Amino acid sequence: MFQKICCNFEKYYQFLNVNKFIMKTKIIIYISLFVLLCCSNNSCTKKNKYPISLGEQTLVGKIVVEGNPCTTDPCLPCAVLWLKTTTDYYVLSIDYQWFCSRPIIVDGTEYSMDDEVEITGTVMVYIDINSEEYSNLEIETIRKIN
After folding, report:
1. Strand partners, 97
2. Average predicted confidence (pLDDT) for the chain
């Protein structure tokens, strides 16, 4: 009788160990699937690909004043200078500093709202805290064209 109980207990113990292994494997599979499903949408992958360098470009357009991209939490609003081209908008910066309520001054020449300009610089695409893309134009050279 004792041997029969021990033998059954041993089989039951082996059954439990196999089930534990199966349960651990299922949990790992479920977690892996959850991570894959969550990160396959834009919430994970979109933020991981930024910033994107579009290289040096020469752009022609008009300087306009618009609200800044929200890059802090809470968002700190500011009116910044943008370059408005026929196809896009670019936040303007020098040394990665935006022009918040002040004109651009380069080599003694002042550039401000409504000036038509040609700017050569590096374009970078970033994402703000609201997952919105914005382009930044780091000014290397600028000249008025009116």
Report:
1. 94
2. 82
